[in-house]
């Protein structure tokens, strides 16, 4: 039960009112910020009722590359930029990633019936919630925030990785620097400049130069 | 998060140690340490009248399974506190889960340091509590030429990086280095040991873990090498591994650890006695078991005060607190969330126990990023004074 929808079949006319109210411009050019949605790969895992249709149409109007799937697969696909998925009690188990390492931005859809389960929401570790009934405004703002949070988280994770790595590199640089100071009888400043120059000339990181110096010092005994 | 105090509903906690696969020898003892502490606490009436209820899974020595089970514990079982993990790769698999869902992992294993997470309490040793002193004593007693043998994953690579730095800074050299894959077979250690024999180091520094430890020491014994002249030194070979390889095979080799079964104090004597009563006279205790045991007690003592499993509240309360452990008095360092632990160096004897070669005068402040140990081994560490 999968289908990929041809974006070209849909025109702004089918959702025109919402878009005009919000952007005040024609959809094809769109407000500058909505360009970031263009060709975004979005999976939509909802029943195709009126709200489901409205959501799909709005995403297509935003020029997203929409892939619809229903009923909910046992494993939510991981190859999309954003996933819109109806909130079900077992959604956390259907997510193919572990919390904290999501493969895509996740927007859960609250159909609005029954008690809202905040704990379930927490366990999905979602980036946004969309409530029915669907409006153009709510889809755009949720999509923008979810994507933004997802990318921000990813940048932070990358930064932490980089910091961890740098911390280790710094120790090698320190060590190489003191080796150079002793062996070449130069100042700290000169030793550091030497490392930096070597790195630039060889087009490698300063950490790589430092490690090479330490290693060769060891080889020479 | 207010709970009525008259409920008798259990406090549910997660437990993740491998009972199967190549890490089972040591992780099984960590599971026992955890469950022993839980049983003792429950026998004493639980925490504020409520028993601890462990939810236990066996990740089968597979790192990614630790991540999946951590998710299952937090999402399906509604658990926020997890005791578990031996290898660094398994800890790193659990880390994103507890960080994103705001859980608390209690990690009872020595590791390579250089990590900090607001969602982990580390109760095993980091390099300043084992490697630094171990390196000094090895160089004093055996010589300056080291050969590294490790399992091929995060902990050995990182541990060796630090050890190499310590050795070099003190004028020693690393004359060889070999890595075997995790879960390697017995045969894979033979070429490594032949290379060792050829390189003639003064000391072999091993970061092999799991079943590989047994194969390594046995291969050493089979080649007729002499631990008095060229011992294998390790941060991970405990009484459990010595027992698995055979007492005669283990005799004479060196291990650095915060705890050995032979630690002489009343608390440890009763800990060892109770453990043997429960699991059998020939079942030794070890550092990983001890950390697993004392961290559950540290958790329970904290929970008694907070009466809440909320991660923020628990963590705030446990930071800086002091506990009585079988190894001696320890504390959870308020800066790092790592335990301040004892440094001990032991030599295995014919009875499978360790004779103490060195013991710190008190627990050593945790310094996971080695901020105070950049240079050489020459200066005596201040916190030991």
TrEMBL record, chain A:
SMART domains: ANTAR (SM01012). Residues 1-35 are annotated as: Disordered. Residues 9-25 have a biased composition (Basic and acidic residues). It holds the Pfam family AmiR_N. It comes from the Bacteria. Signal peptide: none annotated. Residues 153-214 form the ANTAR domain. This is ANTAR domain-containing protein. It comes from Mesorhizobium retamae.
From TrEMBL, chain B:
Transmembrane segments: none annotated. Coiled coil: none annotated. Gene3D superfamilies: 3.40.50.2300. This is Transporter substrate-binding domain-containing protein. The lineage of its organism: Bacteria, Pseudomonadati, Pseudomonadota, Alphaproteobacteria, Hyphomicrobiales.
